[in-house]
Amino acid sequence: SYELTQPPSVSVSPGHTASITCSGDNLGDKNACWYQQKPGQSPVLVIYQDTKRPSGIPERFSGSNSGNTATLTISGTQAMDEADYYCQAWDSTTALFGGGTKLTVL
Amino acid sequence: QVQLQESGPGLVKPSETLSLTCTVSGGSISGYYWNWIRQPPGKGLEWIGYIYYSGSTNYNPSLKSRVTISVDTSKNQVSLKVSSVTAADTALYYCARMASMTTVSRRYFDLWGRGTLVTVSS
Question: Do the Cβ atoms of B104 and A92 come within 8 Å?
C-alpha cells in the first residue's frame, strides 16, 4: 500500500528557513497538500496542489513537489509557526496522510 | 462564514456502534464533499471517508466494512457510523469540507470542524 513518510521532528531558529519533507513513490506525479496543527486546534490547510497558498496563509509558507519528495518550506520562521505539520495526497481514491512532523522553533 | 460542528456521544462501549453528526452552518452543504477524518490521542490523522452532497460515498478500504456516511441536505448535516468499535477507534473525529473537483488528486480539505472526542471503553 502507498505510504507518505515524514521526519518526526524538525528544529529551526527564529528567522531561519525550515524545510519539512514528505516522501512517497513518485509523489511528484500526485498533488500534495500540507496542514498545520497547533496544540489543541484543528488542522489548517497551508498549501494545496503542491504550491498554492489559501487565502490568509502568510507568504513565508511555500511548497514544492518533484520526484519522490514534496517539501514544505517556511521562510523567516516565527515562533507562531511551531506546530505539527502533515502532508496529504491521494492514492487513487483514498486520501493518505503522512505521519506528521513536529516543528520546533528555538 | 461557514462553520462545521461535530456532535455525538463521547463514550461508546466496545462492540457497539459509534454515531456522530456534523452540522454545517453559515453555508450550504450542496456542491461539496464532506469528509470524516480521525486522530487518535497523540497520533496522526486518518481519513475515514467522504460523501458528496448528492449522496455518493467513498471510504477508506481499511475501514470500509464498518463505516457508513450519510447526508441530510434538509438539515445541512452529515453523519458517520462506525460499527463494532474497539479501543483502537478511540480518537478525535473531525468533519472536513472538500471542494468538488473532477480530478481526485487535486482535492484538498479546506475547512475543518473543531472535532469531537470519542472514547471506546466499557
Answer: yes
